[in-house]
Target: Class I SAM-dependent methyltransferase
Amino acid sequence: MSVDFATIKKTQRAGWETGDYPRVGNTLQIIAELLVESADVRSGTRALDVACGQGNAAIAAARRFAAATGVDYAVNLLAKGRERAAVEGLDVEFTEGDAEALPLPDGHFDLTMSTVGVMFAPDHQRAADELVRVTSVGGRIALASWTPAGMVGEMFRTVARWAPPPAGVRPATLWGTREHLDGLFGDRVEWISVTERQYVFRYLSPEHFSEWFRDFYGPITRLSGGLSQEDLATFAAELGDVARQYNKADDGTVAAPADYLEVVGIRRR
Model:
């Protein structure tokens, strides 16, 4: 099946540039902090954050005095990343670029990372090839990706019922499985650390969770804007039910664990 990845990416980019994704992304900072620790980032390391959004992993690396770069194709998210780095007095270079065609030289980075970012590139193989290309032989690739199971996987399935993904595009959450990563990277990368982790979504209530994602998570914001009032009410309730289904809190708030896979590998060739 021929897939028009260019058109798909144009639509995706419009989604990420809708709403205010950093309001959601900033809450996920702990994922990046754990990732750079697992990758054993050192001061002076040339570290790249691919599909960086507002720069969580780049900023985490820069806090450890790495030479950090963030790349994303959503210019509004890059602007937020620059603001965040400036506030903290961190030296991070933010560059506009496509995860499937990185505007960066071969083998330049000691550490190439992505936290729930590169997984959304529609052409999985091309994105994986780019991660390998820009990483030095002997350098590390570190990824954190939502899994098909668990809360985020269920949220994406809920969204897909209202906005089915383009034909031929594989689910982003496949990046959260070891089998898919082995297929994408083969013997080019030796995974030295594979860890199943959980991120806990914490919100005031299931309704607050639903509202927050509808207001700020670009692709969901864009979807919500195209629904009738009746359909929007139904969709909003379904998002709230996702948080309710996984919620462990007993005080009316949300504390809902979501599974993700953290991997660190060494580029062997």
In short: The two ends are 30 Å apart (CA to CA). The domain at 5-202+258-267 is CATH 3.40.50.150 (Rossmann fold). Residues 70 and 133 are 16 Å apart (CA to CA).
